[in-house]
Amino acid sequence: MKSVLVLAVLLQVFVSNTDCYNYKDVVQKSLLFYEAQRSGKLPSDQRVTWRKDSALNDKGANGEDLTGGYYDAGDFVKFGFQMSFTATILAWGLLDHEKGYEAADSLEEGRKALKWALDYFLKAHVSENVFYAQAGSGVLDHNYWGRPEDMTEARPTFMINTTNPGSDLAAETAAAMAASYLVFKEVNATYANILLTHAKQLYSFAYKYRGKYTDAFDDIRCCYNSSGYEDELVWGAAWLYRATGDKTYLTYVDTEYTNIQYYIGFSWDQKAGGADVLLAKLTGESKYLTKMKNYCDQIINSQQRTPKGLIFISQWGSLSNTAYVMQICLETAALGVNADTYRAEAKKQINYMLGDTGFSYVVGFGTNYPTHCHHRAASCPNAPATCDWTQYSTTDANPHVLTGALVGGPGANDDYTDVRSDYVHNEVATYYNAGFQSVLAALIELGYSD
Ligand SMILES: *[C@@H]1O[C@H](CO)[C@@H](O)[C@H](O)[C@H]1NC(C)=O
Ligand SMILES: *[C@@H]1O[C@H](CO)[C@@H](O)[C@H](O)[C@H]1NC(C)=O
Ligand SMILES: *[C@@H]1O[C@H](CO)[C@@H](O)[C@H](O)[C@H]1NC(C)=O
C-alpha cells in the first residue's frame, strides 16, 4: 500500500516535471494582447472587440496625423522607444523563426502586430531629421484611471530633431524598420522598400546628431530613462548591415562598439547582447560569439535564481527580462554554442512562466492566472458604466480578460500577489511580451511545443 503511494507521488512529480505546454496557443494569445494595446482607429478584423477606437486626435506640432501605434502598458502613452524596441524584437522573431510562427498558425497575425507599429512610425517620421518620440504625456496620463475610449486629458506630442536629438530612439527605430524590411521583402516589396528608406534616414539622423532622447524633452523622465545611445548605434548598424549588406554599417559598428558603457544583457534599454549575437551570426567573428558564450554561461551558472528556479535579473518586469536573456542565448545556441544546455534552460524558464509553480503568469492561459493585472482598459466594465479610480481600488477581478499578457512577475523569492495596485509585479507591457513571444516561436520551431 505504502509503496503504491510512493509510486503515485513519484509519478506525479515525474508528470509535473515533464509537463508540456502548448506554446502555440500562448503565441496566439500573445498576439491578442497586442490587439488590446492598439491605439487609434481599429480595423474591421479586430478580434479583441471590447476595445474600441481611441485617441483619434493625436497630432504633431504641425497637425500631422499621429493616430495608431500601441499603448505602452497599462497606461495610454505611446512611448516611442519601447514601441520601437518591441517592433524590432517582433521582427527578429518573425524573420528567424518564421517556421515557429507558421506552426502556431500565427504568421499572418504576427505580421499584422508588427505592421501596426510600423505604420505609426511611418507617420511619426515626418521628415528626415524629425521623428515624433511620444504621444501623450506620462505626467498627465498617469493621473487618470478609465478607458482609453473615454480619455479627455490633453495628449501633447514630443519630437526629436537636430537641436534636441535622440540617437538611441532614432537608431532603435531604424533597427525596427531594417529588420521589418527583411520580414516584408517577400510579402510586399513596395512596403518593404519604404521601410528601408526610412531605416537608412533614421540611422543617419541618429549617427550625425548625437544625444539621448531622454535629454531631448522633459516629459519622458517621469517614466523611462535611457542609459546611453552607443549600444543602439551598434545594434541599429548591425540590422542595417543585415538588411543592405553595405559594409559602411560595419565600420559604424567598429567605431561605436568600444564606447558602449553598460553591458547588462538585453532589454529596451540595453542592446549590446542582442547586437553581439546578431553580429556573431552576420560576420562569423569569434570575438562576438565568445562574448555571448561567456555571457550565457554566466547567466545560467551564476545568476541569482528564485528558490523555484527563475533566473532573476530585476524586480520590475522580472519575467520579461529573463525572457529577453533567454532569447539571445537561444540565438547563440542556433550558432552551435552549447545548444542543448541553452535550449533546455530557455524551456525551463518559459515553463516557469507558464505554470511550473502552479501559477501561469500569462493572463488567460492555464487555469490559474492573474485576474487583477494593472491595466486600465481591462479593469473597466463595458461602457456606459462608470470607470475611474474606484475601479482601480476594487478587489474585483478585471471585467475583461487581457488574454495573452505576460505580467511583470514575481520578486526574488517567487513572491507575487495578484493585486491591481502592484504595477511592479502585475503590470503588463508591449515590450514584456515581445521577447517572450519570440522565445516561444523559437521553441516551437525546435519542436518543443505540446
Ligand atoms: C525640437 O525638439 C524639441 C524637443 O522636443 C522641441 O522643444 C523643439 O520645439 C523642436 N524644434 C522645432 C523647430 O520643432
Ligand atoms: C503593398 O504596400 C503598399 C505600400 O504600403 C500598399 O499601398 C499596397 O496596398 C500593398 N499591397 C498589398 C497587396 O497589400
Ligand atoms: C530619470 O532621471 C531624472 C533625472 O535625470 C529623475 O528625476 C527621474 O526620477 C528618473 N526617472 C526614472 C523613471 O528613473
From TrEMBL:
Alphabetically ordered keywords of this record = Carbohydrate metabolism, Cellulose degradation, Glycosidase, Hydrolase, Polysaccharide degradation, Signal
Name the Pfam families for this protein: Glyco_hydro_9
Keyword Plastid among UniProt keywords: no
Coiled-coil residues: none
- Active-site positions on this chain: 418, 427
Please state the span of the N-terminal signal peptide per the UniProt entry.
1-20
Per UniProt, residues of the Glycoside hydrolase family domain are 23-440
Q: What is the reaction catalyzed?
A: Endohydrolysis of (1->4)-beta-D-glucosidic linkages in cellulose, lichenin and cereal beta-D-glucans
Top EC class, one word: hydrolase
Please state the Enzyme Commission number of this protein: 3.2.1.4
User: Does the record's keyword annotation contain Hydrolase?
Assistant: yes
Q: Which GO terms describe its biological process?
A: cellulose catabolic process
The GO terms describing molecular function are: cellulase activity
Q: Which family does it belong to?
A: Belongs to the glycosyl hydrolase 9 (cellulase E) family.
Q: What is this protein called?
A: Endoglucanase
Q: Which organism is it from?
A: Sipyloidea sipylus
Tell me the lineage of the source organism: Eukaryota, Metazoa, Ecdysozoa, Arthropoda, Hexapoda
